[in-house]
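Hi R.,

Here's the chain you asked about this morning:
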Amino acid sequence: MIKQKTEPVQNKLLEGVLVLDFSNYLPGPFATLRLAEMGAEVIKVEPPAGDPSRSAGPKKEGKGIVFQANNRGKRSLTLNLKQESGREIALRLAQKADVLIESFRPGVMGKLGLGYEAIAEVNPEIIYCSISGYGQDGRMTDLGSHDINYMALSGALAQLKDNTGRPIHPSNTFADFIGGIAANERILSGLVSRALKGKGSYHSISITEVMATFMVNHVLVEKETGHKNGIEVLNGSIVSYAIYGTSDKRYISLGALEPKFWRNFCHSAGRPDWISSQFSSTAEKNPVYKEITSLFQSRSLEEWSKFSMETDCCLAPVLETGELARHPYFVEKETVFANGQMRVHSALGLETVPPPPDKGEHTESVLRELLEASEDELRAWKEAGVI
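And here is the predicted structure, written out as tokens:
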């Protein structure tokens, strides 16, 4: 059957939506990056020193790579919220906005006079989203926290263990990214609700709670069976759903759960005698497991990658970071751009990659456009250190 090629979805789905982004580092900026790629106008409101991620971590030409990766296509406005004039400007901007997102510690925006109640007073239709580690209330709300803490407390980290039972330290901040996606979900739901009911709404995202929702299967499975590692056939305990090493010390993933995929694998591997052992154990005492392990170790990752493209058996290589841009799948989808930036929404017809903004690059233009600020006002604000 010939598959029909679908046309790219219009990439301006959120055109006309104005987002004020008071967040820093990763979860909030990743959320608004996703909104910007769908066409929203995102104004990044930064303190005079800028988002700390501009200068933290690895850098390219003196610029923080994490900032560069998560803030393209936005406009930057610097604003000193500790000054009364800065707060007044923020309130005036909020009157024009559809969405406000912030990631300060709980209570900080309230102390600045920019909490939900204050913003809703000037703009009852605002969709206001707060992202924090432990939510806006409760006994842990004021404690410092990071991605590794959210992974640990949610139970997710306990599902990533080596053969000794020690949790593996992830080299990706899964909770931060997932928290950003969850914030997106609530913001978009708020926009839909406003369109239907004409009212704004407040949304508190606890990254720890979001990560805990990934344990829905595990918690119920343990309650009913006592098994703490979720659905048993998915945790590497059977030969048809496991990770295997290759001859060049790389790894390949096999997910042939359905009988048809397992049969395809066995026949293409020249071992139809394995078909009846699909759900047998990955224990060393299982001779079929030892034979499959030996087979995978007899060929390189490149050879198995070719096999995976030719045999419909749920087989995929474990790629390293630098290999994504070269894999046929991501080449076809144009996921990774030449400058290293990555598309966060597929099929949106995004042809160019807008650059991340310089600190305060759009301060004056935003204030002129949205607040109709005069040159005298701009001059006075600059002299007072407000902008």
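One quick note: Residues 248 and 300 are 5 Å apart (CA to CA).

Cheers,
M.
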